[in-house]
Amino acid sequence: MTVKIIADSGCDLPKEIIKELDIEILPLSVIIDDKEYGDGVDMNPKGLYKLMKDGKAPKTAQVSPGTFKNTFIKYAKQNREIIYIGFSSQLSGTFNTGYLMKEEVLEEYPESKIEVYDTLAASLGCGLIVHRAASLAKEGKTINEILEQIDFYSNHMEHVFTVDNLEYLYRGGRVSKTQAFVGGLLSIKPILNVEEGKLIPIEKVRGSSKVMKRMIEIMDKRGVDLKDQTVAISHGDDLEKANELKNMMKEKFGIKEFVINMIGCSIGAHSGPGTLAIFFLNKTK
C-alpha cells in the first residue's frame, strides 16, 4: 500500500494534479464579514479577489485540530503510512496544529507511521514539494525515500514574487502605511522571497514590465539546470501575465515543464489580486 500524502490548501496545487496523484488537501479558512469559508471549498480564489477589489478585507484561519485528527485517524485505521507536508509554520499556525494532532493520534494508534514536515515554503513553492512527494508515493517509494526528497526540495526551493498593490501587504503587516502609500503613487513594485519560512523584501522596481524582467534575472542568478526542472508560476487572477512569464522562461532557459495556478484564498487574502510568483530549485543534485 502506498504512502498517503496529505497537504493543506496553502500549497496551491491545481485540482487535476491533486486528483491524479491522490493527494488529500486540508482546507484553511477565509473569514469575510464574520462568516467562515473553506479555502477552495466554499470560496474560490476568483470570488475572493473580486470581493477584495470591492473593498473587503478577509482574514484567514488555520486548519482545525478536528480536521487533522479525523484525517490522520482515517488513514491510520487503513494501516497507511502518512506524510503531512505543511505550508510554512512562519506564515500560519497550521503546521503546529498538525504536529500536535499527530502526537494525539499516535497515542491512540501507536503502531501507525505518521510524519509531519514543515516545508517553510508557501504557495506553489510548497506545491512543488507536495507534487514531488506524491509522484514518488505513486511510484511506490518508501516513506524514508520520500522524506529524503521532501527535505532536499524544501532546502533548495526558491520563491521570487511581487504584488500589484502594497495595500494588501500593509493590511497584513508586511509593509508600513507610508511605504504602501508612496509605493502606490510611484508604481513601485516590491520583489520578495521566502527565507527560513518568512517573507523578505529584497528590492523594489518601478513598473510592472520591469519587475517581470527583474524576476527572470534573479531566476537566472539563483537557478540551476532550469530547463530540466518543473517550474511553477502562481498568480492572483492574472493568467495573462503568468503566461507572459512562462514565455519569457521558455525563451531564456528552455524550460518545458510548468505548473501554473491561481494563488488560493488562504495566501491570496494577504497578497491580493495581481500577485505574481515563480518557484524553482537552486540545486538539483
UniProtKB/TrEMBL annotation:
Key words of the record: Lipid-binding, Membrane, Transmembrane, Transmembrane helix
Database matches in InterPro entries: DegV, DegV_C, DegV_domain_contain
Molecular function GO labels: lipid binding
Transmembrane portions of the chain: 258-281
Signal peptide location: none
Known function: May bind long-chain fatty acids, such as palmitate, and may play a role in lipid transport or fatty acid metabolism.
Protein name: DegV family protein
Source organism of the structure: Senegalia massiliensis
Lineage: Bacteria, Bacillati, Bacillota, Clostridia, Eubacteriales
